[in-house]
Design a protein that fits this description.
The structure is a single chain. With 242 residues, the chain is of the alpha/beta class. It has two domains: 136 residues, NAD(P)-binding Rossmann-like Domain (Rossmann fold); 84 residues, Orthogonal Bundle (N-(1-d-carboxylethyl)-l-norvaline Dehydrogenase, domain 2), CATH 1.10.1040. The protein is built from eleven helices and seven strands. The radius of gyration is 22 Å and the shape is elongated.
Length: 242
């Protein structure tokens, strides 16, 4: 059985509040969150884990402002940054939840629902993942930017793509829900078959005439996005752009 841990979080944004709520549900003792107007110099005192849940650009400055404690692990939630930004602390860790945390309540639910985490550094973050009932994989400092780029592709870019779907289909009177069902089916196919075998559509079958008709029908400011994704589909299908 994992010992009850005490954690303090700097950064009362969506990620910090989601994590605090989730860990509280799991029996960890969570100290009140600290914000930008609080004195964080003694934040590492009296806790097993101090989490810096600020925007990436502020992590190094915030970590440097905290007095070091030999028995306290200092961690960040960034997907793109390595452990060097947590200097001068000796026990350092990274624990990036591979989730879209839209708000604290929904975020806490997702964190407690078998989420994936990219971890590095001190093994205490492994206890955190285990307490949440999650799954983890290790990403080293040199690979974190590429890993985070993949995360953005899988989450943010999918959302942006569905925004384009809404712009194109909305004037036709076709509800977004119809395309969300289509997207969910495609994701289920990827899970079952892998991306290459799940690919369908004109690029997969080399139907360039249909692609040309699509481009002619689209508004001019939507064509570049379609063309870029058609190129990715051709690449996945093993074909080249004519």
């Amino acid at each position: 059985m994992i010992a009850m841990r005490r954690v303090r979080i700097i950064g009362p944004g969506r990620a910090g509040r989601s994590l605090a709520a989730a860990l509280g549900r799991c029996g960890w003792v969570t100290e009140p969150l600290l914000g930008r107007d609080d004195d964080c110099s003694s934040a590492a005192e009296g806790v097993d884990l101090l989490v810096v849940a600020t925007p990436d650009a502020a992590i190094a400055e915030v970590a440097a402002s905290v007095h070091t404690r030999p028995d306290t692990v200092v961690a960040h939630l960034s997907g793109a940054l390595g452990l060097e930004v947590l200097a001068p602390h000796v026990r350092r860790a990274a624990c990036h939840p591979l989730l879209s945390l839209a708000n604290a309540d929904r975020g806490a639910d997702l964190l407690c629902d078998g989420a994936w985490f990219a971890v590095a550094g001190d093994p205490l973050v492994g206890e955190l993942v285990q307490a949440l009932g999650g799954r983890s994989f290790t990403v080293g400092d040199d690979d974190r930017a590429a890993y985070h780029a993949a995360a953005v592709l899988a989450s943010n870019h999918v959302v942006a793509l569905l925004g384009q779907v809404e712009r194109v289909a909305g004037p036709l009177g076709v509800p977004l829900d119809a395309f969300l069902a289509l997207a969910e089916g495609s994701l289920a196919n990827v899970r079952a078959l892998g991306p290459a075998d799940a690919l369908t559509g004109p690029a997969a079958r080399g139907d360039e005439a249909t692609i040309d008709r699509h481009l002619a029908a689209l508004p001019a400011d939507e064509r570049a996005g379609y063309e870029a994704l058609a190129d990715l589909a051709r690449r996945l299908a093993g074909g080249k752009r004519p």
